[in-house]
Amino acid sequence: MDFELSPEQEQLRDNIARLMKDRYGFEARKGYQASPHGWSEALWRDYAEMGLLGAPFAEADGGYGGGAVETMIVMEQFGRALALEPYHQSVVLCGALIRHGASEKQRADLIGAIAAGELRLSFAQMERQSGYDLNDVGASAVKDGNGGFTLSGEKTLVGQGDSADKFIVCARVSGARRDREGVGLFLVDADAAGVSRRGYPTQDGQRAAEISFAGVRVAPHDVLGPPDGALPIIERAIDETIAALAAEAVGAMSEALAMTVEYFKTRKQFGVAIGSFQALQHRASDMVVALEQARSMMYLAAMMAAEDDAAERARTMSAVKAQIGRSAKFIGEQAVQMHGGIAMTYEYKLGHLFKRLTMIDAAYGDADLHVRRLADRGSLFA
Amino acid sequence: MDLRLTEDELAFRAEVRAFVRDSLPASIREKTVAGKHLAKDDYVRWTRILAARGWSAPHWPQEWGGAGLSPIKQAIFLDETQRGSAPELIAFGVSMVGPVIYTFGSRAQKERFLPRIIDLTDWWCQGFSEPGAGSDLASLRTTARCDADNWVISGQKTWTTMAQYADWIFVLARTNAQAKKQEGISFFLVDMKTPGITVKPIQTIDGGHEVNEVFFDDVRVPPDALVGEENKGWDYAKFLLANERNGIARVGVSKARLDRVRQLAAISVYGSGPKIEDPFFRAKLAEVEVELKALEMTQMRVISAPRTGKPDPASSVLKIKGSEIQQATTDLLMEVVGPYALPYRDPDDMSNEPPVGPDWAAPLAPIYFNNRKVSIYGGSNEIQRSIIAKAILGL
C-alpha cells in the first residue's frame, strides 16, 4: 500500500497551491464573486494553461490522461481556497458524463474545447420533485422522426447554470417518471431556442440556475449515450463527482482546522492564548480525528472512482459521502464555535468554509441518505 | 498512490485466513465468538500452534525467532486472526517487553527470555500503573534500591492484567528520588515467584477477574534484573508504547464483533421480529461500519508511513477512534440482546442451572460493561487528545 503521490502529482499539487496562495486570498475571492459570472475568467484561463481543465480526459481525446488521483489533488486545493470556478460542474461531472457516454466524434468536439477553457458545461439533472433520486426524471424527450428529439421540462438547482455555454440535460424518452429505464442525455446550447434560465447566488458563494426547456430541438449528433438507458452513466458520473467533492471537503476542513489552530495561538483572553485551555484543545483534537477519518475516505474514494463494478463502487461512495458529511458538519460547527463572534461575520473566511462544507453534505445525497442506502445493502465488510 | 495490496500480500492474507480456519481449535473459537472468558490453557495452546508455524511473534526480527513481517503484513495478520476469532497474543510479552529486551537488553537477557516469550513458556504481565500513578505515570512511587549488589523493590502496582497467570512481570521503579521524575526511573524484569510478591484480584464491573493489584514487599532481585541503564527506564517505556501503533485500533476485533452483531440480530427473540429488520438499528450499524471502514484506511496510512522509533502522535488518532468504535459495537450488542441483558451470573458460579433467556445472551452485557476500559487503558482518550493537541497541533 502506497499513499505517496508521484513526483509529477506532487508538482501538480504544489503548482495549484502556489496559484491559490498568490491569487485566491479571501479578499480576491470577494472580487471574483462580484464579477459577472461569479467567478474568475482570468483564473479559468490559468487553469487551462496549467492543464487542469483537461486533466481527467484521455490524451487521445485531447486531455492530459490524469485520473481520480489528479482530480483529488486539484479539488483539495480548490477546497482550501474556496475556489468558485465551475471545475466540479464542467470538468468533473460533465467531464465524466462525456468520458463514459459520448461517442468518439462527440469527444473530439467537446474535450479539446473544455481543456482549452473555451467551453463550460453544466449538468441539468435535478427537478422539483426528484430530490436525490437520479431515476426520477419528468422532463421529456420526444423523438422528432429524424433521429433527433424535442426536449421539454424544468430543471432546478443547476450548478453554475447561469454561466454555462452548454447543458447536458437528462430527460425521459420512455416509461414512467421514476423508471430506471428510458432516461437519456442530451447536449443543448444554452442559447438554443426554447431555453430560458434564471441565475441566482447560492449559500456557498457560488451560483446556480433554474432552467426551462420548452420544445428545444436536439439534433441526432447531440444525443449522448443510449437515449433510453443512460442512467448507469449518470450514476457513474455522480460517483466520480462524490469522490471529487470528498477531496474538496477535505481541503475546506483542513483550512478550517488550520484557521482554528492559528486563532488559538493568537487570540488572547484572560491574559493567555485561548489555545492553552484544555477544554478547547481536546475539541480541536477531536477535529483532527474527524479530519483524518475524512481524509482516509478521500483516498478510498479516489481508489474506487474507477471501479467497474457499479454496486461495489456505489456502496463505497455511500460510505465516503456519509463520513465526509459527518466530519464536515462536526469540523465546521466546532470551528465556528471556537472562533466565537468573528466566525459569525460575513467578511471572514471561516464562516464561508462552514457554509461550503454544509452545502457539500447537501449535494448528491446527504450523510443520512447514504447511511440509509448502506443500511439496506448489507455489511461493508462482507 | 496505490492502495491495493500486492500479490504477495493478498497471498499472505489468504494463507493466514486458511490457517486460522483450519488450525484454530473449535472449542476456543466457540468461546471467543460467544464472548466467553478464555482459560490460560486456551491462550497457551493457540500461541504454540502459531509458534509451530513461526507466527507467534509476527513483528519480531527473524534473528530472535520472529516472523519479521512488514508493517502491512502485520496488520493483515492481526486483522485475519482477530476476525477469525482467534485468541489474542499476550501483548505484555510479545509486543511490550520482548521488543524492549531485544533492543535494550543484554545478550544474556535476550537468550534467556526471548525464546520463552515466543511459545508462551513465560507469561508476562505489566507493572506500570500504581494507585497514585495512572495518567500521570511518571509520578510512580514504587522504589528499587541497591543492597549488597541486589535490587530491593518496594511498592504497589495495580490494574495488572492477568497477573494471576503471569510467570514474570516487568516493573518501572524509582531508582533516583532526587532526579526529575522521568529521569529517576528504571526498568526491571522480575520473577513472580520471588518472595515478597503478593497478587490480589480486582473484580471488574462485568464480574470478571482480569486485573489485579501486585504488592512488592522488599522483593530482592539480582543485578541482571535491570534492563539497559539505570535511570533510563522511562525511555524504554516510551519506546514500548511507540511500538503500539500497529494493532492499537483493533480493527479486526471490531469487524469480528460486527459479524457477531449481524449474526445475533438475524435471530428472532422478541415478538417484534429479528432486530436486523429494524431500519433504525440497521442505520446505526451502518454508521459504525462507515467509521470502521475509514479507520481501517487511517490505520493503513499510519503504518505504511516510515518508522521513526519515536511515539507517533497518529497512534493517538487510532486509539481514540478505535476505542470509540469498539464501544459502539458493544452498544449494538446490547440493543440486540434487549431485556435479556438483565440476568447476572457470577463467573465463578459453577452450578448447573440453565441460563435465563437465550443461551447466547449472558455474555453480552458483561462485554458492554467490560469494554468501557478500552477508552481508559493504554493512555486514556483524554491523554490521547492532549497528545494530539501538543504533538500534532502545536498547542
How would you describe this protein?
The complex is a heterodimer of chains A (382) and B (395). The two termini of chain A are 21 Å apart. Chain A has a four-stranded mixed β-sheet. Chain A has helices at residues 7-23, 26-34, 41-50, 68-81, 87-101, 104-115, 231-266, 278-304, 310-339, 349-362, 367-375; strands at 121-124, 140-143, 149-159, 166-172, 183-189, 195-201, 207-218, 223-224, 268-269, 272-273. Chain A has 382 residues and is an alpha+beta fold. In chain A, a hairpin with a 5-residue loop joins β2 and β3 (149-159). The radius of gyration of chain A is 21 Å and the shape is globular. The model of chain A has no long low-confidence stretch (mean pLDDT 97). Chain B has helices at 7-23, 26-34, 40-53, 71-83, 91-104, 107-118, 233-242, 251-265, 279-304, 314-337, 364-370, 381-392; strands at residues 124-127, 143-147, 150-157, 168-174, 185-191, 197-202, 211-221. In chain B, strands 2-3-7-6 form a four-stranded antiparallel β-sheet, with no helix packed on it. A three-stranded mixed β-sheet of chain B has the order 1-4-5. In chain B, β2 (143-147) and β3 form a beta hairpin. In chain B, α9 packs antiparallel against α10. Chain B is globular. The chains are: A alpha+beta (382), B alpha+beta (395). The A-B interface holds A 1-6, 9, 69, 261, 264-265, 275-276, 278, 281-282, 284-286, 288-289, 292-297, 299-300, 302-303, 319, 322-323, 326, 371-372, 374-376, 379-381 and B 1-5, 72, 255, 258-259, 262, 279, 282-283, 285-287, 289-298, 300-301, 304-305, 314, 316-317, 320-321, 382, 384-386, 388-389, 392-395.
Main pleated-sheet profile of chain B:
4 strands, antiparallel
Mean of the pLDDT scores of chain A?
97
Outline of chain B: globular
The proportion of residues forming helix of chain B, as a percent range, comes to 40-55%
- C-alpha Rg of chain B (nearest Å): 22 Å
Strand content of chain B: 5-15%
Strand order of the largest sheet of chain A: 1-4-5-8
The helix tally of chain A amounts to 11
What is the beta-strand fraction of chain A?
15-25%
Unreliable sequence segments of chain B: none
Number of helices of chain B: 12
Bulk shape of chain A? globular
What portion of residues of chain A is helical? Answer: 40-55%
Largest interface: chains, residues each: A-B, 43 and 45 residues
Query: How would a crystallographer describe the biggest sheet of chain A?
Result: 4 strands, mixed
Kindly report the average pLDDT value of chain B. Answer: 95
**Structural class of the helices, strands and pairings of chain A?**
alpha+beta
Query: By helix and strand content of chain B, what is the structural category?
Result: alpha+beta
Oligomerization category of the chains in this entry: heterodimer
- Main sheet of chain B: which strands, in order across? 2-3-7-6
